[in-house]
Known about the structure:
The chain has helices at about 60-75, 85-95, 105-115, 135, 160, 190-200, 210-215, 230-240, 250-260, 285-295, 300-310, 325, 335, 345-360, and strands at about 5-10, 50-55, 75-80, 100-105, 145-155, 180-185, 225, 245-250, 265, 270-280, 340.
Amino acid sequence: MKQKMLRGLISLSVVGLALTGCGTAPAKDQGNTGAATASPAGTSGEPTQLVISTWGFSDDFFKKEVYAPFEKEHNVKIVLEIGNNSERLNKVKQGSSKVDLIYLSDYYAQQGIEAGLFEKIDRSRIPNLKDIYDIAKAPLGEDYGPAYTVGRFGIAYNPKAVGKEITSWSDLWSPELSKKLTLPNITSTTGPMVLDAASLVSGNAKFNEDQAFTKVKELNKGVVKYYGQTSEFVNMFAQGEIAAGPIMEMYVKDLKAAVPDTKFISPKEGAYAVMNTVNVIKGSKNKQLAEDFINWHLSKEVQEKSAKAKVDSPVNTTLQLSADEAQGITYGADVVNKLIKMDMKFVNEHLKSWIDRWNKEVAQ
Length: 364
């Protein structure tokens, strides 16, 4: 198989830069709120209905802090379509959804792009893009939506149960972790990240599939379970069935609730960026209104409230958090600039063959 660079360290300046190639800024500055400029479709009369496809987590927070202010300012009625990534994406593919705006992980958003499901966004209508991290501005290309949150995929462990300090992806192969380890299944959003980490540990600057699979197979006897849902990790960790494993930082608070001494680290080679994106569905009659909503979600006001409530890690670089406020979320240029970004187009092109190979060689 032709080898291709699967990842790249993020090292761009993130504060105060204008988005390259985003077009001319609108004459009227919308500032950081994005809620100040009403869309023509929703200025008077009956509220315009804006259908948003999302996961449904932290529902009370979003209704109060994100949806309600936008509805009031734009004379809009927001209707939600709730479900996981694959369920909601499939509904759009099948044409059984009237969604205007869809929230998806970058892994699934790339599939939506390849299926031709999204409108090309008008970046000049989203001035708050200038204030977000470069990694979040166009994670899947300039034509498509930004990431509104960037999280870390690193390693969590129980120091007492492991008996050593973990600092590297290579530590997953330590004898101390044998029979105490869990890994995400290849079919999960973070599964390909573990495969990439295995290639890194094998000494490759560029992704090497054969060496990655060989390295993962070395762990087989020591893996208690390949988890498909994060709740499985949390339950096994709480019950002492495992002591370590790769996980997204946003779930560490659940681990700490069960095991207060839990540590979460960014391996010295780099943690992986986990990004959730927002896109406008092709054919939406409310495209401009949807773009206004994206701008609102990227505003300092929304991003700061989300971060302080521990709902989402912020991408807006203008907010300032205290050490306590930043605890448990991915925050700060010093953290974000070191993340490894997967090439989701490459991942989706090869995922089927990886799943087949994983089922034959690893999950036996």
